[in-house]
Amino acid sequence: MPNYPKGERRRAEILEAAFDAFGTVGYRNASMVQIAADCGVSRAGLLHHFPTKESLLEAVLKQRDRIDNEQFFAGGTSDDGLDYLTRMVRLVEHNAAHPGIVSLFAVLSSEASDPGHPAHVYFQERYARSRSWLRRAFRDLEQRGMLRPHVQPDGLDVEFLSLLDGLQVQWLLQPDAVDMPARVRAFLSRVLTEVA
Amino acid sequence: MPNYPKGERRRAEILEAAFDAFGTVGYRNASMVQIAADCGVSRAGLLHHFPTKESLLEAVLKQRDRIDNEQFFAGGTSDDGLDYLTRMVRLVEHNAAHPGIVSLFAVLSSEASDPGHPAHVYFQERYARSRSWLRRAFRDLEQRGMLRPHVQPDGLDVEFLSLLDGLQVQWLLQPDAVDMPARVRAFLSRVLTEVA
């Protein structure tokens, strides 16, 4: 852990314990008492940093997005659709070495399908945003004539995200049976005339 | 509800309540007391039919498989790969009208990625079986020359299942944004020379 001031270090430790707990037993089943015990802070110490379980969830999701973004935008940004998809493949490669990151989203995104879940709107918005970025990438590739002739671009955004999500579930259950990056590349090879 | 004897009817009512509870809040967070209350049986009545929460989970998963199988094998079976995939598309069409069925598996399969979950082995075995059936279907199609020339058959089993699982998560979150059967057909149209 970097050399943070004590309060920040404590906050980071709590976030790490919550990250693990939410990704293992889910948000609803995770207990604030257990999370506090896992990182050796008192209940009062936990509530000082995160007054409610919802606020802890929000912080964990923000951190997860930050990790993704740092990985995704390493080396700058561009409007190039092929570049975008290549970054996605790299992100999958990165996640394939970090089961905790994968598990957090796999567990929370399906748990959050219930409208009463505190992360329901977060995931609705997140998926809508991801679909919109992917539509832009596939549209760019279509305009540049880089989709195979029989490929319909409509819905590729939904399909690509579905593939990523579904791969995670199978991979978490049986890591040896599922090569996530290879499957994403194979999917793209049937869509594109060039390799992502 | 059909005209079952009282004990069977009671059992069916408990299963229905458990099906809803597991599909909404997950297995771990579901409460036996709440499930009993939801279907108006006493705690003793519930425990008479299902002595443990695990036994209730097992019965719910068996029922879910029975629903799938009845739908899938309606009209007999065959070794024809194209027929197999066409049945899968019909199953997706059927499930798209039954959110409860979709939600149960989406929530439980990701919750069960934790090795400590009582349905962990159930889902490992279920996915392994589904992959093996799909491999057989795609192999049959390959041998009959029905895969597009650039398509590699290896891994199509994993990809196809991932697509189904991931579509369910997005569809549960935003039904209007996701046409599950259309996306499955589009995926297959990029794999096959004929329409499934």
Topology (elements, then pairings):
The structure is a homodimer of 196-residue chains.
Chain A: H1 6-25, H2 32-38, H3 43-49, H4 53-72, H5 81-95, H6 99-111, H7 120-143, H8 156-173, H9 180-189
What does the model show?
Chains A, B: It holds the Pfam family TetR_C_6. Chains A, B: Keywords: DNA-binding, Repressor, Transcription, Transcription regulation. The structure is a homodimer of 196-residue chains. The first copy, chain A, is an all-alpha fold. Chain A folds into two domains: 62 residues, Orthogonal Bundle (Arc Repressor Mutant, subunit A); 124 residues, Tetracycline Repressor, domain 2 (Orthogonal Bundle), CATH 1.10.357. The first copy, chain A, is 68% helix and 0% strand. Chain A is built from nine helices and no strands. The first copy, chain A, is elongated. The model of chain A has no long low-confidence stretch (mean pLDDT 92). Chains A and B meet through α6, α7, α8 and α9 of A and α6, α7, α8 and α9 of B.
Largest sheet composition of chain A? none
Pair of chains with the largest interface and how many residues each contributes: A-B, 51 and 51 residues
Q: Using the alpha-carbon principal axes, give the shape of chain A.
A: elongated
Q: What is the share of helical residues of chain A?
A: 55-70%
